[in-house]
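User: Please predict the structure of the protein below. I'd like the answer in structure-token form so I can feed it into my own downstream comparison script.

Assistant: Understood. Taking the following sequence of 302 residues as input:
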Amino acid sequence: MTERLPPLQTLRAFEAAGRRLSMTLAADELHVTHGAVSRQIKALEDHLGVQLFRRMTRRIEFTAEGSAFFAVVTRLLSELSREADNIRRRSETARLVVSSGVSFASKWLTPRLHRLMNRYPDYDVHLEVTDVEIDFAKSQADVAMRYGDGRYPHADSERIMNETVSPVCSPEYRDRMGGLQTAGAIASSRLIHENGMKADWNRWFGMMGIPAPGARGPGYSHGSMSIEAAIRGEGVALGRSVLVSEDIAAGRLVALFPSARLDVEFGYDLVYPMGHRDHPKVCAVRAWMKDEVQQFKSAVEV
């Protein structure tokens, strides 16, 4: 059957030329040359064995066969376009894109995402990982998790979790450094920095009432990277409570001063397009996230 059908590109050229009654206008619409449209229509005529247009000096007009064929082609192409739109809309409805920052995705969100999929099996969940400021006009995301101050241009947001920072390191590093039982001992150790954090070592040592030792030690652009460096035994990091809790519970990290927590200026926000608070996808993620956070807080200290 397919061998008897004309090539689709010839039908598109024929439909455009027939609708415009001009090969020049059809070429402009299809972003091809006049000659390309003329060749496609000639190929279609050769395929069918009939002439579809009469070529005048500055215009074209249908033959009887062309007029009848145009009605059929227009109807079928319209049906194909309409059904393609329906399929695309159904696909977009089923697709749930969650955008997350790198550290939160790697240390907290990804291990839990399967429960979102199980809870809403009608959604095809996709995770977009980026630290770029969310812009729903340019992103395919339906909802985003961002670490910030709660202010997002052209979007609405809800605070999901706040956090603190306190010193953490690997058990091996602690033992190698003699236990690190005082803030002074930590000041003498190798410090790991998360670049760009206002809740940094200077503020923590200030809270403890001792001079900060300066900015020596490695620095990382992401909290997850500084945590992995601490797990590898590279030094002591100011661990963000949400990101380090499960590593502490698993014994990969130890909290050196769990009671000496420094408040962080940022928190984790559920962000979505303006006016979408009650959108089914936003509601689904909100409900799931609320349960996950409650379960997380009951299991670990944040």
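That's the full token string. Residues 244 and 263 are 15 Å apart (CA to CA).
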